[in-house]
Design a protein that fits this description.
mainly alpha
Length: 136
């Protein structure tokens, strides 16, 4: 469990998941929509029981399961510069603020990097291409 899939294996698998989701369900892959569904439980069929919300829950639970199987989470050891200059509380606050800023930016852009970069750019969406150019 200490190695990752090679890019030439993981990339095509991700591409097949995106194509399958689009071709079989006519749904676009993206994570911000799932977070929105979790936060704002809408009555229009989306909401906490939507596939997008379940995707986000799966990402969090999958990451937690991997961390536990790999030997337990080790907060404070993955950001070498931050570890050397901030306390654990300061590091958590900075990372929380950074995540909040990413969320605001993704909502302002009409989607996240996974939605724009993986699906929107593949569909040649002008908004997604401009969004990815801005991000890069």
């Amino acid at each position: 469990m200490h190695s990752t899939l090679a890019w030439w294996i993981a990339g095509p698998i991700l591409g097949l998941v995106i194509l399958g989701l689009l071709g079989l369900a006519n749904k676009r892959f993206g994570v911000v929509g799932g977070v929105t569904d979790l936060v704002h439980d809408s009555a229009a069929g989306e909401g906490r029981a939507s596939w997008r919300a379940l995707l986000v829950v799966g990402i969090v639970l999958g990451g937690a399961a991997y961390a536990l199987l790999a030997g337990a989470p080790d907060a404070g050891s993955g950001y070498s510069w931050l570890d050397a200059h901030l306390s654990l509380g300061g590091e958590v606050a900075l990372l929380f603020g950074a995540g909040l800023a990413i969320g605001v930016g993704a909502r302002t852009a009409g989607g996240c990097t996974s939605g724009h970069g993986l699906t929107g750019s593949a569909l040649a969406s002008p908004a997604s291409i401009v969004s990815m150019m801005t991000i890069m």
